[in-house]
Design brief:
The protein is an alpha/beta fold. It has 14 helices and six strands.
């Protein structure tokens, strides 16, 4: 029986064990919502878990690549090659925040005529029902920034792959598999900063789940994202069973955010 795990990832240095949350759903039931690990410990945990039970679907809340033009500028033809470059150069990119990176003090958002180049195709295509689109992977500071977490996440994909994980959509489908998720697309319209709103949302959407685990999921925005993402993945288990490696050359470079089928 498959287990669906969602990781609310973080690129933070300080307080990382409070910000990295993992949730797990088995047979439609939320069985854990917890924090306490850093990035290396999360990956170690996933590798160890896959050694015991390979029927895992893992959603990771960070971008698996950059736009094609940037990947190719690094001398790479596939995202899987890029991850090694990010491991080598990523901390320098974050420290210097030189263009095309932005969001730190003195590094402003690119002008409108350059904005399109800041996004992967999947980020441009992924718009939630209430009009929210994923942030640019080049944004490494400011509200909603995803770049730091992505830069500090991509190198770990190599380790997961080396330990038998398929990384979707780059690899042929098999279990265990790791895929990129966008929690805002899975939670829908909710004021995540409000503890009351989080509790009401979980009680309405997942009333049949363990109240104690729902209360833990409501304890923070990060916990909520992990729990809801794992539950949504479980709800769409049939679609996840049908995953296939992408034949699109752009997706082999840029990756793709997993989304539930539009008709679901």
């Amino acid at each position: 029986m498959p287990a669906f795990l969602a990781i609310d990832w973080s690129g933070a240095i300080a307080g990382i064990r409070r910000k990295m949350w993992i949730a797990e759903v088995v047979a439609g039931r939320l069985v854990r919502v917890e924090c306490g690990r850093d990035r290396a410990e999360i990956v170690d945990h996933l590798v160890e878990r896959a050694g015991r039970d390979r029927d895992l679907v893992v959603g990771l809340d960070f971008a698996f690549a950059f736009p094609r033009w940037f990947v190719e500028a690094q001398g790479c033809t596939r995202a899987t090659e890029l991850w090694r470059v990010v491991e080598r150069d990523g901390d320098t990119w974050l420290r210097d925040c030189a263009p095309p990176f932005w969001g730190r003090t003195g590094r402003r958002r690119p002008p409108p005529d350059a904005a399109r180049a800041m996004y992967r195709v999947t980020e441009s295509d992924t718009v939630t029902a209430h009009g929210v689109r994923p942030k640019s992977t080049f944004q490494v500071g400011g509200a909603g920034a995803v770049g730091t977490g992505s830069v500090r996440g991509m190198p770990w994909l190599t380790r997961l792959r080396e330990h038998g994980f398929a990384i979707w959509p780059f690899d042929p489908p098999r279990r265990p598999v790791a895929l990129e998720i966008y929690p805002r697309d899975l939670t829908g319209r909710i004021n995540k900063s409000s503890a009351i709103a989080r509790r009401l949302f979980l009680a309405r959407e997942f009333a049949d789940q363990d109240p104690a685990l729902l209360e833990r999921a409501a304890s923070s925005e990060d916990a909520l994202d992990a729990a809801v993402s794992a539950l949504r993945m479980s709800q769409h288990s049939k679609a996840l069973d049908q995953l296939s490696a992408s034949k699109d050359p752009i997706e082999q470079i840029e990756g793709r955010i997993w989304r539930p089928p539009p008709s679901a």
